[in-house]
Each structure stands twice: as structure tokens, then as C-alpha cells.
Amino acid sequence: MTATVETPLVPGPIQGPTREEPMIEALLLDEYRSLAHLAYLILPPAFSRARRIAAAHRVVQRAVPPGLPVPDREPREFLRSRVVQEATRQAACRSLLDRAGGVFAPADALGFDPCSVELDRTAIAQRIARGRRIAVAATAVLAIGLFAALLFS
Hints:
Layout: E1 2-5, E2 19-22, H1 23-42, H2 49-61, H3 75-92, H4 96-104, H5 121-151
Antiparallel strand pairs: 1-2
Helix pairs in contact: 1-2, 1-3, 2-3
Keywords: Membrane, Transmembrane, Transmembrane helix
Transmembrane segments: 134-152
């Protein structure tokens, strides 16, 4: 299903060639928040919250790959079923590293809305700073462990 949007090449009355805008992309933008919530709920709770949020966004963005034929009837239902299929597929094929990564991921602060289209810049900066502090602490512990191993060997 596509909608024809007539764009004039010169100012004045509409004339000349038109361009095709895929309706599924407009629908994806309209339904993005609810699709991201749906994918978040389907993904296993063994993921940390941050990993589930990132995976939910990945699922929604991969729901309609280029070249996939979209049915003319009920595109909303098609999009929801694609999100469900992709989320269950990602939940089934998790690697050991994915499973262990949830243990070390920091918890999110309350009040952070991960499915928002526009995120608060201060919240993003705080999350980056927290991640940097965790990375520095983990690197320091690893360096001290290696240094101690070298001294005592």
C-alpha cells in the first residue's frame, strides 16, 4: 500500500511527476512507541532493562526490511506480527555473552522513558557519565589484578 504525494517541481498549480511515499513507513512512525513496548514485553526478563530496551528498538527497526512485500490489507496487523516474530527470534537465539552481559549492565534511573522519540539530553549525559565511571572502575580492578599477578609470580 502506497500513498501518492504530489510534489510540484515549480511553484504554482500541481503538475508534473509525483513521488511515491511508502505508507508502511508512516505507519511505523505513528506506531513506534507501542511497537517498542510490545517488543520490550516479549523479550525475556533475563535481559537487564537497558539491554531489553536496546533490543526492543532493534526489533522495531528491523521489522520491515527493504524489499519485503507489504500486504495492501491491514498493514498495522502485518507490522505487529513482524515485531512479534522478530522479538521471539531474538529471544530464542541469545549467546552466552548476551546472557552474561545483563549481570554487569547498570540499572536505569526511575522516570527514564526509553521508548520516547525525543530523549532528554541531560538524562543521556548522565547515562553516559555513569557508563564511563563503571568502565573506569572495571578497568582499574582488572589492572590491579594483573599487576598483582605479575608481582606474585
